[in-house]
């Protein structure tokens, strides 16, 4: 099936009343009414769903079977096909442990493979839920700072060596990086792998955004950059970000090592967690040639949004954006304005009525930043950029 003719990323949808958290919770979270606010916080997209995924949901309804089901194996094969075709990584479908999303995958992996009080390293600033998952699991987050470069962030293993306590068990890594939108190079990933080997650490590479890669950029899936790490590597992928299927609550925790896989599966058995029918059927439909075609059209559109937004931000004195290569999340630093964050927030949420994620939630290094979701029609991004410029027009 050709999907091209159905695509319309420009089309604005009225999301109100459709149970979308980003709209429905905006007023309670930020005091901004959905009547005139623009939600730019929660990481899902404003586009209409891919037509072939809607067809899949209709097909499920037509079949009318919602009882116990088969099909998890064919879902795993679709994941393997996708990873081979899109990322050049050949896996055995049996390596795929199907979870209720990747937040769930991270939490269960921590419970299954570490002990209470174990320390988990993350490179900050980073996706806010990393530290929350670690804390809620009774483990201890260790924030190792990323270093700001001219365009984005870098890892600094020399300083990380000096920060180790000896109680660390896991590195929880975001690749590509949420919030910086950076693709890590193969050399950086190899350096990370060597760090994990040296210090006997399990590496969890959370690659939930790894299909949203801008034209001309190349993302390397961590197992390919770290081929000798299979006995301590866990790679997490999902259809949820790139196909906007977060509500399907389906994620892939991919583990080559049989012992680690058995421990995670055993933990899942102990809480009786199994995939749900709608999640695996719709996500299987996504990991397909039609899905590949959809992604190939989505990525240039997002990249266009990012370039537009970055250019607009560059005209506001004192506000800097990391240069995005991937993801639909823009990361803006307001420290150069010289304003207190209270004033920045007043201007962004109060005056511009934009609702980005507060950077402070993403840990050390995020205090003066805000994260803006650009997964929306271009006209919305243009409106957001224009409101932002107006809110800081006295600086120009
Ligand atoms: C890096 C990262 N990991 C995990 C998640 C959450 O994934 P899920 O919705 O599958 O729990 C997100 C959501 O934004 C994310 O950005």
Structure description:
This protein is an alpha/beta fold. The protein folds into two domains: about 20-50 and about 290-395, Aspartate Aminotransferase, domain 1 (Alpha-Beta Complex); about 65-285, 3-Layer(aba) Sandwich (Aspartate Aminotransferase, domain 2). It has helices at about 20-25, 25-30, 50-65, 70-85, 100-115, 130-135, 155-165, 185-200, 220-225, 260-270, 275-285, 290-315, 340-350, 380-390, and strands at about 40, 95-100, 120-125, 140-145, 145-150, 155, 170-175, 200-205, 235, 250-255, 320, 330-335, 355-360, 370-375. The strands form three sheets. A seven-stranded mixed β-sheet has the order 2-10-9-8-7-3-4, with helices on both faces. A five-stranded mixed β-sheet has the order 1-13-14-12-11. The chain binds pyridoxal-5'-phosphate. The site of pyridoxal-5'-phosphate has 14 residues, from helix 5.
